[in-house]
Request: fold
Amino acid sequence: MKAFDLLSAPVRKFVRNRGWHELRKIQAAAITGIMSSDDNYILASRTASGKTEAAFLPVLSKLNFEETGVQVLYISPLVALINDQFLRIEELCKYLNIRVTKWHGEANSAQKNRLTRNPEGIVLITPESLEAMLVNKPFLVKGMFSNLKYTVIDEIHSFLGTDRGTQLKSILHRMQCVNAKPFSIIGLSATIGDYGEAKRFTGNESKTTVFRDTSAKEINVLFRYFKDNGDELSIELLKDLYMETKDRKVLIFPNSRGRAEEIAVKLKKISDRVDGHPNYFSHHSSVDREVREYVEHFAKNNHRENFCISCTSTLELGIDIGTVDEIVQIDATYSISSFIQRVGRSGRKDDRPARLCLYATDKWDLLQSIACWLLYSRDMFVEPVKMQEKPYDILVHQSLSIVKGNSEIKLKSLIRQLKNNPAFSQTEIVEIEQVLNHLLKIDFLEKAEQDIIIGIEGENIVNSRNFYSVFKTEKNFKVIHAGNTIGELPFSFQIAEGANILLAARIWKIRSVDSESKKIDVIPAKDGKKPVFFGSGGSIHPKIREKMLEILCGDEEYDFLDRSGHDEIKQLRRDFSVFNLQNIQTDRLLFKAENHLCLFTFTGTLVNHTLKLLFDVVGIKNELYEQSSMFDISDISADDFLSKWKTLPKYLPDMNVHIGNSLKDKPIQMDFSKYGVYLPENLQIELLKNKYFDTGQTDLFLKTTKIIEN
DNA sequence: GACCTGCTGCGGGCTG
Reply:
């Protein structure tokens, strides 16, 4: 039987009326699977390949929406995506007389109230809104969701291996507990590397099936190399970039918000001068939400005019922005999976191959960029998801949430609930007890006779509006022009009266700064500096660094490189030819210069961090340059260094002591975790160890590496 | 050498 015939009559009518001649591969597979079983499914395929319909066509065919209670829950990582998908799902449901309700912080509260009085149909929600419901109105969760049949999780890859994902996994389990009969889960995802983790996310790996649409899109790739001079992009690069993008619909990804502004403003200036199109925008988290919505709307609805959006990962996820002809990446991405997301945003027209242009501004970035491209296109490599096996900080959060939701709960019952939750399945009971005891000790929890309740100190935390999310955000200054919010900026040396800055693809002069209300008043200006933001670097997988070394030691000529890129690689190869390298897997390079040593490790960020800590412990004076994966080592001879190097493995078993000392030195290191500071010290150390270090890989690295000298 | 994400409940003021 054909997949189409499995659908219910009204859904078939919908498909025919839309004029769809045939179902996509992913849709046919999903329909056959979902119609025939109540198993969980992961549907993986490119952006805009009809995944939403792949999930909803069979679910709408299968369920009886006359039943009371919400039947389908759709969970999205973004409010913007909920608003997007609402229109599509509502269109589908109009035929079937099913009510669809948006439920997030900005959604209409009258609609929400109507749903609570008469729960039915489909609800679109964020993880944080679900959390809030569990904390404040657990009775509502029971009333609304105890007859739930399906939960659809959009962009499920964005939850894998993240704190927010652990939170969602925990919430899903808590919801399963109030449900009469377990609901099924359908995860929608872009193509990812780690389907095992995606399957485990449903809480029932063996009853979860993955459907993948692997049909690859043809890509035309071009590399351009323009060495930058210091902080700003070279004028040659900008001119080339302008010519490359002026007649297309383009997304440019420059890896940082400051540079996104620099590019948008400078390309617009060139365009103004030569009478090109005026549609240059920037899109990132510091651009006001309404401004961003305008940009998205423009891209989606102007079919004839070209545009250029200079953006960060805000445009990586699946917000619908219509057709994009070309993707430009400035310098290497931090991961292959991010690279895949960005490439996937182009070439929606099926008849044309996607166009990808990779600019590099530094020799190491050029090398990394080539490595990423080869790993993606030849080796089909994607980083595995790095799981936090024991997410103690999320355990703190969920413990507080469960206690607050229950008002009071027996300690044994709380421990049992946490232990049965798949989000914490790797955490031992003694560890859960340790966390809860510490929360009791710091008055976040309190014993009231036989029960546990929220303690004095915990009240402030759980009653705050900020409690529902597990990630941290800083308070920034609002940038305002003539009463309109342009965006926001962190406080820095730049924020001063009379200074000129770039924001939202425009140039502004700061007229006044109000530190009290955190507002900056601006007027338009003619020239200015790119804004400064703060952030620590990303983490590069060892495989990318190994590929960089492989390219360096090889002699293949790449036909996708331009002349200057070709010359730069040639020069790099010449520089490294002083080493007689035999084995790319195990040989690493020690360059002996006059007064210092350069150790090129060609390994991942976490191993480098671990090596740095070990160097510090044994008193090797060093500085780490992550971009080239190189340690600059001084005040020691090569021979002394090598004999100390041999002793490093024996310090690894005491990593917790070393990390503990480092944490005492700089408590600020815990800042990455919103709830980590409420853990006992030994668990804080474990959290830090998992986040910034990799003792297992470092042990292996130290044991297998052979150091080659020049 | 970084990027991103979300938000209750209540009270007061205003509009229709």
